[in-house]
Amino acid sequence: MFLRPIPAGALHPGGIGAALASLSRRPTLWVEAGVVLVWTAMAVGASVVDPGSASGSGSPWSNGGSLWICMTGMGEMGAGSAAHTVPLALSGGPASLAATLPMLALMAVAMMLPPAMPAVRHVAVNSLYWRRRRAMVEFLLVFVGIWVAFDLVVLGALARWGWGASPPAAAAALALAALWQLTPLKRRSMLACHRASPLPPRGWRATAGVADFGMRHGFACLGSCWAMMLTTAFVGLPRLAWMAALTTLITVERLNLKPRRTARRVGAMLAAAAVAAAVLALV
User: Fold this and answer.
1) Which carries the bigger pLDDT value, residue 219 or residue 156?
2) Domain parsing of the chain, residue ranges
3) Which of 7, 56, 95, 207 is the most buried (most CB within 10 A)?
C-alpha cells in the first residue's frame, strides 16, 4: 500500500462559492494553512532582523536573541565574524534549550510538512470523522518530534566542536548531501516514505497505530533528507532563501511520480552548489 500524492484538485464547476465549499471540505486544510502561516512569520522576521547588526547591544533582535536566529539555530560569535558562526541554542544551558524547542518545531513544520502532506492526508481520510483531527495531531506530534530531536543533535554537535557556517564547511556539507542522493539507503528511505499502513478505527489501538505510522514515516523521511537538512547549518547564504529552496527540492522529490530520477537531479544540483562553495572558499 503506497501513499499517493495529493491530487492537484478538480474544483467543482459553479463559481467561487462551489470552489470555496470544495476547499472547506479539504481535511488537511488547517495543516496547510498552518504551514503558510509559519512561512509568513519567518519571512516577516527575516525582513525585520538584520543579522549583520547583532552586536550585543541588548536588543531582543541582537546576538542570538531573535526569532530569526533561533529559527536558524545559529548566531554570530561577535562583531566582524560573519564568516564563522556557532550555534547559540545550546550554549545558554537548559533555559536556552527550552526556549529554542518551539523554534525548532516551527522550522520542522515549515520545511518537512509540505513533503509529508500525503501522509497527513492518509491519516485524515483513514480515521473516523469524529477523531480525524485528533489523529492528525498525534501524527504531527510524532513526526515533528523526530525532526526536532535531529535538530537538537546537530546543534549539540556544532556547539561541542565549534563548527559553523563558512565556504569550506558549506562545500563539504553540500558534497555529502549530493553523495547521499545516490546511495542505496537514500533510495530505500524514499520508498519507505511512500508506504502507507492501515490505521485501526478507534480506541488505544487507533492512537498507537497513528503514532507507529508517524514514527515510521518520520524516520523514513529523516533517512531520506537528513543530509540536505544538515546543509542549513553551514550554508552562509540568507538562510530563509536556502530553507525555501531546500523545502522546494524535498517536496518535488517526494511528490514526483519518478522520485529516483528526481533524486539524481537534486544530487546534481547539490554537487554544483558544492563546487561553487569550494570555489568561493579558494577565492
Assistant:
1) 219
2) 16-282
3) 207
> Which residues are paired to 197 by β-bridges?
none
Torsion of CA 167, 170, 175, 180, to 10 degrees: 180
Whole-angstrom Cα distance, residue 271 to residue 273? 5
What's the mean pLDDT in 162-182?
Answer: 88
Q: What is the pLDDT of residue 86?
A: 43
H/E segment holding residue 72:
helix 67-72
pLDDT value of residue 238: 67
The x, y and z cell numbers of residue 183, run together, are 546511495
Residue partners of 54: CB distance under 8 A and separation at least 6: 61, 62, 63, 64, 66, 69, 75, 76
* pLDDT for 41 beyond 60: yes
The residue among 132, 84, 152, 108 whose CA lies nearest residue 243 is 108
Q: Provide φ and ψ at 258, rounded to 5°.
A: -125, 75
User: Which residues is 2 bridged to in the sheet?
Assistant: 195
Q: How far apart are CA 261 and CA 283, in angstroms?
A: 34
What's the rounded Cα separation, in Å, for the pair 263 and 252?
A: 9
Q: Which one, of 109, 129, 133, lies nearest residue 218 by Cα?
A: 109
CA angle 135/243/90 to nearest 5° reads 80
pLDDT tens-digit series, residues 206-237: 999 999 999 999 999 999 999 999 998 888 66
Q: Is 16 exposed, middle or buried (0-12, 13-18, 19+ CB in 10 A)?
A: exposed
Mean pLDDT over residues 192-219, rounded? Answer: 93
Mean residue pLDDT across the chain: 79
Q: Give rounded-to-5 percent helix, strand, coil for the chain.
A: 70, 0, 25
